[in-house]
Design a protein that fits this description.
The structure holds two protein chains of two kinds. Chain A is of the alpha+beta class. Chain A contains six helices and 17 strands. A three-stranded antiparallel beta sheet of chain B has the order 1-2-5. Classes of the chains: A alpha+beta, B mainly alpha.
Chain lengths: ~325, ~400
């Protein structure tokens, strides 16, 4: 239930990136149970492996949390004031959504959202609803609430008003990042809720984690980006850096290690990934006392002159500095 | 076949289950016998029957069971209501019932009431399988929530909604904060008449909530709700009214105010909900204690939604909710032409909000960096609480990043 709220909050306060989408998926996919698509209370239902919890099922709380994401997250509706307030922004992975018809001050409203704009339409309130439109004979005031400015507008029955979305997700969290918020695919398994897209969502607070520490890969589809010289690879690994990693830049989505020798891909190797924050007992004890921002392990690898981006970037990670057999983590994968 | 049950200690409150079956043509009616065996519960209320069935090769046998259920909590002649419902169902038959069911849902869950991710030009969903799952969940979520609700006018809609709904025994079938805070907001927008079931329950139990506050020594005009509520709404072992998750009270208020903003129905608001808002403001004002050393108002011995941290002071979400509550209650008084309560404004302005030197909000006074967080807590201050008192966008972002560290 928690991550649905994170999605709404991330879409409101993130200055860049698309973790709102990652959190949306975090709030739904690990909890939804086929065939009837009911929520479970836990990501893993097995009592023996989930920490000894018998999850509530169906978990209506989870349904309720998810059921808030589209109106309160994407349309940015707030219902805690006497005047309706909206603040629309749709994560780039979702091309379009028509919001459920909703009511405010007894007025009837509909909204459609695409990547850049929102259309808000007001309808007459049907008599059957046992609602009385407080503005039946006049225009309905509403607020477009941006963090830096609020503006008040009015809308008449049968009028449609087009509102610009906040396009904060177009802003790069890491300067010059060619990968942020692009589509990602993987054929490998990953830990519950640790989606590959988390590696390129412009937020280190979410991460991709392959299921095991064996060789694992993800591929970012860069076909919508112009070819660009590449200068640097940088990573925020989070808490669990891999032992080594390499990146293949190519024009085919089905690259392999051999592609580099065949000349089909440029292979950028990082044989020696070293934790930038190795465990230090004294420092750990000191940092335990005070609440401080979370910091992940980072690595930066310069790229030699003359390397260009391709249509696909594949990241391959191998091993993990934590020797528990579980996968390494990649908080953010940046090609710039 | 029929059976009845009543809650322990309440012999006058009885629910009846009456069933009939249609086994033809595969069963021999004359073979009917009372069932026994290991699969029949030994509970006194359990009854079963058996028939001999003859299955023919390559031929489908279909068995129908029609059940009527009613409790005298809502139906004065419950046994009659259950019998009538059962008899009518058996008379109408499966096909008619299925049609009736589908038509009823089509009227409730209309196309325009569903969030829709399909392309407006083609009518098709994007290829992304994640979006297909979002679409399915966008239909299943209101469906499963509404299954447990009745609209205004039904006379049946005053018992809120439990964690697992009517068909689940999880969490003892009790009502928690999540009904008001997690399930209601999405429904309020699109199904306001149905969502009222959630606040109706709290308004119904307001007299008991006032008794709870009086019992705990709170001043006249206060109300305190128990963490878990069932038939009575009194303070119990699982449902403490004090020294626990006080945030439940403002959670209830904020949902009621959202419903009021959506309907702006004064007749409804003035017939209980408004009294509830002021009663909780009075209780939470009493809950805060002025600390002469820090010159701030403290909230002692509470717990936030993160249940790993119990019996601690100045729980961030609860104390922020209390500040918002007191300010909101004063605004409501202004709207009514009443003088504001100066103490409420002063308390709201001087809460002992727990912030670390780094600027990150601590969940409670004294929290350190090693603490495991069970669930969303400080993040709730941004949404749904909309807390903005010396709490900037940067604070909100840092707090969200900090508590999401399990995903790092």
């Amino acid at each position: 239930m928690t991550y649905s709220i994170y999605a709404i909050v991330a879409n409101e306060v993130s200055p860049s990136g698309c973790s709102a989408n990652t959190y949306t998926l975090n709030g739904v996919l690990p909890y939804l149970r086929a065939p009837w698509y009911q929520f479970s209370e836990q990501e893993v239902d097995d009592f023996d492996t989930n920490g000894g919890t018998n999850p509530a099922f169906p978990f209506l709380t989870g349904h309720g949390g998810f059921y808030q994401v589209v109106p309160f997250g994407y349309l940015g509706v707030r219902t805690d004031k006497t005047i309706l307030s909206i603040n629309p922004s749709l994560p780039p992975q979702i091309p379009y959504v028509k919001v459920r018809t909703f009511y405010y001050a007894g007025a009837t409203l509909a909204a459609t959202i695409n990547s850049t704009h929102t259309n808000l339409t007001r309808h007459a309130t049907p008599l059957s609803l046992n609602l009385i439109d407080s503005y039946a004979n006049t225009t309905l005031p509403f607020i477009i609430d941006r963090s830096d400015s609020n503006t008040t507008h009015t809308i008449a029955i049968n009028e449609t008003i087009t509102v610009d979305n906040r396009l904060y997700w177009q802003i790069n969290t890491d300067a010059g990042n060619l990968l942020q918020c692009l589509p990602v695919s993987t054929s490998g398994a990953y830990a519950q809720g640790r989606f590959p897209i988390a590696a390129v969502d412009g937020a280190t607070s979410t991460s991709w984690q392959p299921l095991t520490n064996e060789t694992a890969s993800l591929t970012v589809n860069m076909t919508t980006r112009a070819f660009t010289p590449v200068h640097q690879l940088s990573f925020d690994w989070g808490a669990r850096p891999p032992r080594s990693a390499f990146v293949l830049l190519s024009n085919t989505s089905s690259v392999s290690n051999a592609s580099a020798t065949d000349g089909l891909a440029v292979k950028l190797e990082m044989d020696n990934v070293v934790p930038s924050l190795p465990y230090n007992e004294t420092a750990a004890a000191a940092s335990n006392q005070e609440v401080t921002p979370y910091v992940g392990n980072t690595s930066v690898f310069p790229v030699k002159e003359g390397v260009w981006s391709g249509m696909f970037a594949t990241l391959v990670v191998e091993g993990c500095w934590e020797e528990d057999g579980e996968g390494a983590t990649v908080g953010e994968f940046v090609v710039s | 076949m029929y059976s009845s049950v009543h809650p322990s200690g309440l012999p006058d409150k009885t629910a009846y289950v009456i069933s009939g079956i249609d086994l033809s043509p595969a069963a021999e009616e004359s073979s009917r016998a009372e069932a026994s065996g290991p699969y029949i519960s030994t509970n006194d209320s359990t009854i079963g029957q058996t028939f001999n069935i003859t299955l023919k090769k390559e031929s489908t046998a279909t068995f129908y069971k029609y059940v009527g259920v009613a409790s005298n909590d809502k139906f004065p002649d419950a046994v009659g209501a259950a019998r009538d419902a059962q008899a009518q169902a058996q008379k109408d038959g499966w096909d008619a019932l299925l049609t009736e069911h589908s038509e009823a849902w089509a009227n409730i869950l209309t196309e325009s009431s569903i969030d829709d991710f399909s392309d407006p030009e083609t009518g098709e969903l994007p290829d992304d399988p994640s979006i297909r799952d979002l679409q399915i969940a966008s239909i299943s979520s209101p469906f499963y929530l509404l299954q447990n609700l009745q609209p205004d006018g039904s006379g049946l809609n005053d018992n809120s909604i439990t964690v697992g709904g009517l068909a689940s025994e999880s969490y003892g079938g009790l009502v928690f904060w999540d009904a008001d805070y997690w399930m209601s907001p999405g429904l309020n927008l699109a199904f306001p008449s149905w969502a009222n079931q959630i606040s109706n329950f709290r308004v119904k139990q307001l007299p008991q909530a006032k008794d709870n506050a009086a019992f705990n020594g709170y001043p006249n005009g206060s109300a305190l709700y128990p963490w878990t509520a069932g038939r009575y709404g009194n303070c119990t072992g699982t449902g403490p009214c004090v020294d626990y998750q006080y945030h439940l009270n403002p959670d209830i208020v904020f949902n009621i105010l959202q419903q009021y903003n959506i309907s702006q129905n004064d007749t409804w608001f003035n017939s209980g909900p408004k009294d509830l808002v002021y009663s909780i403001a009075t209780a939470h004002s009493h809950l805060l204690e002025f600390n002469k050393t820090t010159q701030t108002y403290w909230l002692h011995n509470g717990s936030d939604p993160d249940e790993y941290a119990i019996n601690v002071n100045n729980t961030a979400f609860t104390i922020a909710s209390t500040a918002r509550l007191l300010q909101t209650a004063n605004l409501l008084r202004l709207d009514e032409g009443l003088p504001i309560v100066d103490l409420w404004d002063d308390q709201a302005a001087r809460i002992a909000f727990p912030q670390s030197a780094s600027g990150i909000t601590k969940e409670y006074d004294g929290m350190n960096n090693t603490v495991a967080v069970k669930q969303a807590d400080t993040v709730l201050m941004t949404y749904p609480l909309d807390f903005n008192q010396n709490y900037t966008s940067e604070n909100k972002l840092e707090d969200t990043d900090y508590v999401s560290s399990p995903l790092n």
